[in-house]
Specification:
amino-acid transport, 403 residues, nucleotide-binding, ATP binding, transport
Length: 403
């Protein structure tokens, strides 16, 4: 019972997900969970594999390995990697938006939201003839669809433009209309691919308000890909960070924001600058851990990409004939891990300076013992110089006598 209860807390469970395109490993052994009724953000640098994860969840790609489990509120469970892609929104109630806006620009806002309810209306119309003759069941379904569309237009603050063409809206309003259209399908999981891309601060604030309203009032869980960190940190309950198809951090926004691997990988900060960034963030514990640099003579070398492993810049799998080539030191997160490991492997570093101090104290005594012996040559040298001066005087006198 406890296991079932814990599973019901998570609407989405991704386990050991891998997606390979020939020799390219886009996603490698990724596992994470998204809680029901929360906003989970999936972030990372460009090319980290975030959209590939979305494509696997929504059925556009069939993963090479792994399992994607969706737990609905009614207790039913779906393995998304086994469902045909058209059944994922219909049966598992997963909706999605894309990086590029995909509205019907020539249709009105209201018509765009009615299109999202096409399946429900077609079923109510008996696939044409009940709607054609105006049966009560179809009229009722049509009225409910229009009411739902108007409800989400109000939520998106677009009801005043319900009869305007979607292509006439400003960019930020089109983004909100896309989300409203997705919500008209009644999803339990809403996947948003960079909804704040290209928005100004005012439009981003309106987007945040809409997403929080969806989370608080509908029970819909949101999985979000976003590069705008102000949006991510303000509305996310849980953040998963990817780099080169691998998970490098997983937790609440505050812990992820101060993770040195995230700072190095996602923000593009070199290892030498990590401490500076941490100082600005104010994480003193992590600053102390990274205060001492790695021993270049005994520490590990530059790490390769996390896909290719920490030893070489390429890895071969003989069983699959696969070869992945990645530039050395590509993973900034792996470099931070290497630095932390090298610092931890130097327990005797404090003893060496003490030994050097003791030898430094002993050195003056030896010098003092040798000092008296050094006076004799000085005396001899002084005597020799006096003799030279004395011999020089008679020579001068002789020269004077000749004059």
């Amino acid at each position: 019972m406890d296991v079932q209860a814990s599973q019901s807390d998570f609407i989405l469970q991704v386990e050991h997900l891998s997606m390979k395109f020939g020799g390219l490993v886009a996603i490698g052994d990724l596992s994470f969970q998204a809680r029901r009724g929360e906003i989970t953000a999936l972030i990372g640098p460009n090319g980290a594999g975030k959209t590939t994860v979305f494509n696997c969840i929504t059925g556009f790609y069939k993963p090479t390995e792994g399992m994607i489990t969706l737990n609905k509120r009614d207790g039913s469970t779906y393995l998304l990697e086994r469902l045909p892609n058209h059944e994922i929104p219909a049966r598992a109630n997963v909706a999605r938006t894309f990086q590029n806006i995909r509205l019907f620009s020539g249709m009105t806002l209201l018509e765009n939201l009615l299109v999202a309810q096409h399946n429900k209306l077609m079923k109510a119309s008996g696939y044409t003839f009940l709607g054609l003759f105006g049966f009560p069941s179809y009229r009722q379904a049509s009225a409910e669809s229009i009411e739902l569309a108007r409800h989400w237009l109000e939520k998106a603050d677009l009801v005043d433009r319900a009869d305007d063409p979607a292509g006439d809206l400003p960019y930020g309003a089109q983004r909100r209309l896309e989300i409203a259209r997705a919500m008209c399908t009644g999803p339990e999981l809403l996947c948003l691919d960079e909804p704040a891309a290209g928005l100004n601060p005012k439009e981003s604030a309106s987007l945040n308000q809409l997403l929080n309203d969806i989370k608080n009032n509908t029970g819909t869980s949101i999985l979000l890909i976003e590069h705008d960190m102000s949006v991510v940190m303000q509305i996310s309950d849980h953040v998963v960070v990817l780099e080169y198809g691998r998970k490098i951090s997983d937790g609440n926004p505050q812990s992820v924001r101060t993770d040195p691997r995230v700072i190095a990988a996602y923000l593009g900060v070199d290892d030498e600058e990590v401490e500076t960034v941490l100082t600005e963030v104010g994480d003193e514990d992590v600053i102390e851990q990274l205060d001492t640099g790695p021993d270049s003579a005994h520490g590990p070398g530059n790490s390769a990409s996390m896909m290719a492993g920490p030893v070489s810049d390429s890895v071969e799998h003989a069983d699959e004939g696969e070869r992945v080539t990645v530039s050395k030191g590509a993973s900034k997160a792996a470099q931070v891990d290497a630095r932390a490991a090298s610092v931890a492997s130097k327990p005797t570093a404090a003893a060496k300076p003490a030994a050097k101090r003791s030898t430094a104290k002993a050195a003056p005594k030896k010098m003092a013992a040798k000092a008296p012996a050094a006076k004799a040559p000085a005396a001899k040298a002084g005597g020799a110089s006096k003799g030279k001066e004395a011999s020089a005087k008679p020579a001068a006198d002789k020269r004077g006598g000749r004059k």
